[in-house]
Amino acid sequence: MNMTNSKILNGTTVGLSPELIAGFAAIVGVDNVLTGNADRFAYCRDRMPYGLFKLRANSLPATLPSAILSPETAEEVKAIVDYARQNKLALIPFGAGSGVLGGTVPLINEIMVDLKRLNRIVNLNTTDGTVTVQAGMNGLQFEQELERNGFTAGHLPQSIAMSTVGGWIACRGAGQSSSRYGKIEDMVLGLKAILPNGRELVVRPVSRRAVGPSIKDLLVGSEGVLGFITEVTLRIWRKPEYSSALVLAFKSIDSGFNALREVVQSELRPEVIRLYDLNESKQRTENMAEFSDRPILCILKFSGKKELATVERDLALAICSSHDAVVAGLEPYDHWESTRYHSYSTKWQSDGYYMDTIEVTGTWTHLPAMYLAMRDAAHAIHPEMHFGAHWSHVYPEGACQYMTIRLPPMPEKEALQLHRQAWEQIENICLEMQGSVAHHHGAGLFRNAWVRKELNEGMHMLQILKDGLDPDNLINPGKLGLRSPVGSNWQL
Ligand SMILES: Cc1cc2nc3c(=O)[nH]c(=O)nc-3n(C[C@H](O)[C@H](O)[C@H](O)COP(=O)(O)OP(=O)(O)OC[C@H]3O[C@@H](n4cnc5c(N)ncnc54)[C@H](O)[C@@H]3O)c2cc1C
């Protein structure tokens, strides 16, 4: 353990008693129960920037987990839940910890249940075009296995190498090809989960059903608060035989919005659509003459059967040209393609900057004004606040606005206040403009306040469901806007 860690850990040693450790070891095996401080420290945060800021300043985001368990089967997950209920111990389902909103941050020394050993493809059904996979499987390994068999999941998040299939579903995530294949909720056909009451929920994969509200969708986006997803069946696609990219320069964001709206409303389905604001375009188009009087960058990728993809490309180009776009060199596309799974934040964070990303959803009616209002609000908070945005999940009725905010190195107290203010204003503008406060990162811990505002009476329904299934508030308590666990003093 390094110096920083020992400073942080000083005085925070609440762990499990030897009896409880032995109880869990009897379920998962002694080697799959971790209780050492270094391990507990490694699981005290996910990739939430706020947690990182706290660690940089030598404090924990909240608490240390009291132990880490690694079950191998759904039966072991069930036994863990039963044992935890008997002993009134709180648990957190853990995928790979790539969440960016604190969904796995322990608030009261919860026990982490790391699901990565549930990592097998159970069945690939090439007739139906479906795959059944255990929830802890690594995203990239999953996609590579499908590709070896001529398929793709069509779900390719930037974090594919550092996340699990179960985490995608628990967070209601989106991949970079969402404009063609949809978000993860469009792909889940069935699932199995161990509920907080210890019972197993099985939603059989079928193509459609009309048997009441969708039970499956209670688990999609549930962020661990309604139990452990152990297995899922997803719709998959044949790997495209052909693809072709197009880079365009637009005069303004508004002409880009209008063109892309027309493209998707014309039922064209590019695999990738990415429109960047001025700041983000500049970083990617330096020294490219095409962008001198048309500074807004747009990247499109078409794929599938060659004949079809070619027609889609021609039709989309005609639409974009009618909005005064010109075709530019492929360099920005090649750069994006070669770095699409990289994380940009690491360098800034290690240089002491306060960087974060916020993704919201807006409809076409509101997006132009929403962008300007959010950009101006960020700039008004601090003259050196960096603000950049792009739109890379585009739908017939609107799009996801993905924003990066960044403050220069400064005293932590001041920075955290400004960071909080930026979130507050951006999320509130989103609500005022009828958007959704989250498109694919979920709610976790950090978004609690705004999720409550957005869900409104729906939050009340969710709390009733949670209380019914988990009366002692033991499974990932205090997340997704739900009631905090007794003893938690976490606050922003
Ligand atoms: C650099 C970077 C890029 C990212 N890019 C994207 C992106 O393109 N698209 C996107 O959607 N997200 C993205 N994310 C966010 C994150 O990767 C996703 O939310 C991802 O789905 C989380 O998966 P995980 O397995 O790491 O889950 P974790 O972080 O371990 O958990 C997240 C939440 O899900 C719950 N959970 C996890 N597994 C289960 C399970 N099996 N059953 C029940 N609950 C469970 C946890 O309790 C927690 O509340 C990015 C993150 C980073 C750091």
| CATH hierarchy, class of the domain at 121-238 | Alpha Beta
Helix count equals: 18
Named once each, the bound ligands are: flavin-adenine dinucleotide
Largest sheet: 8 strands, antiparallel
Would you kindly provide a written description of the structure presented here, covering whatever features stand out?
The chain is an alpha+beta fold and 492 residues long. Among the domains are: 121-238, Uridine Diphospho-n-acetylenolpyruvylglucosamine Reductase, domain 3 (2-Layer Sandwich), CATH 3.30.465.10; 242-339, Alpha-Beta Plaits, CATH 3.30.70.3450; 345-446, 2-Layer Sandwich (GMP Synthetase, Chain A, domain 3), CATH 3.30.300.330. The chain is 37% helix and 20% strand. It is built from 18 helices and 19 strands. The chain has helices at residues 3-9, 18-28, 37-42, 49-56, 74-86, 139-148, 165-171, 178-181, 216-219, 253-265, 278-285, 306-322, 331-339, 345-350, 367-381, 412-432, 448-455, 457-469; strands at 33-34, 67-69, 91-94, 111-114, 121-125, 130-134, 151-152, 188-194, 200-203, 228-235, 237-238, 242-250, 272-276, 296-304, 326-328, 354-363, 386-391, 394-395, 398-407. The strands form four sheets. Strands 12, 13, 14, 15, 16, 17, 18 and 19 form an eight-stranded antiparallel β-sheet that branches. A five-stranded antiparallel β-sheet has the order 5-6-10-8-9. Strands 1-2-4-3 form a four-stranded mixed β-sheet. The longest helix has 21 residues, at 412-432. The chain is globular, with a radius of gyration of 23 Å. The mean pLDDT is 96. The chain binds flavin-adenine dinucleotide (FAD). Flavin-adenine dinucleotide is lined by residues 46-47, 92-100, 103-104, 115, 135, 157-159, 163-164, 166-168, 170-171, 173-174, 223-224, 228-229, 343, 440-442, 476, 479.
